[in-house]
Specification:
The chain crosses the membrane at residues 9-33, 39-57. The chain is built from 4 helices and 7 strands; from the N terminus they run E-H-H-E-E-E-E-H-E-E-H. The protein is an alpha+beta fold. The radius of gyration is 20 Å and the shape is elongated.
Length: 151
């Protein structure tokens, strides 16, 4: 059964997109107005278009994030057009970490990060309610220890 991230995570993503968009647009506007560079106007228009499309796609992108606990591994998925599926075997987990940004903390959310021996399989599950993240961390640590003990 697939578990999805909290719908509140959409707020975190939208706020991050808005802050980034405002900073980039302010930079392009400053070059256009203060530097009297006409090309910066086209960059500004392009940036506005990109950030508007990003804001429209954001809800669907957040809904695409999920994880599934299976018998021997954790399966993580994300992406709309370019989907990514990562399987992390319990016995290969070396570190399970919880991190919280200021916006996520205000919404009661956290992200769970798994570190394995292979750097390419590092997985971050964002937008989990704090209690769920702590329970999942404890469960995964116990599963990882039992799987490593069997090696």
């Amino acid at each position: 059964m697939w578990h999805r991230v909290s719908p509140k995570y959409l707020v975190v993503e939208v706020v991050g997109t808005l802050i980034g968009g405002l900073l980039f647009c302010a930079g392009a506007a400053a070059v256009w107005i203060l530097g009297d560079q006409q090309w910066a106007l086209w960059v500004l228009v392009g940036l506005i278009a990109i950030f508007l499309v990003t804001l429209v796609v954001e809800p669907r992108r957040v809904r695409s994030i999920g994880y599934q606990l299976r018998a021997d591994d954790l399966l993580f998925r994300r992406g709309i057009m370019f989907q990514r599926f990562v399987s992390v075997p319990y016995g290969r987990m070396q570190l399970v970490d919880i991190t919280r940004s200021p916006i996520a903390r205000a919404l009661g959310l956290a992200e769970l990060k798994f570190v394995t021996a292979a750097a390419a399989t590092g997985v971050v599950i964002p937008g989990l309610p704090l209690e769920e993240a702590e329970e999942l961390r404890d469960r995964l640590v116990a599963l990882a220890e039992s799987r490593r003990a069997g090696l």
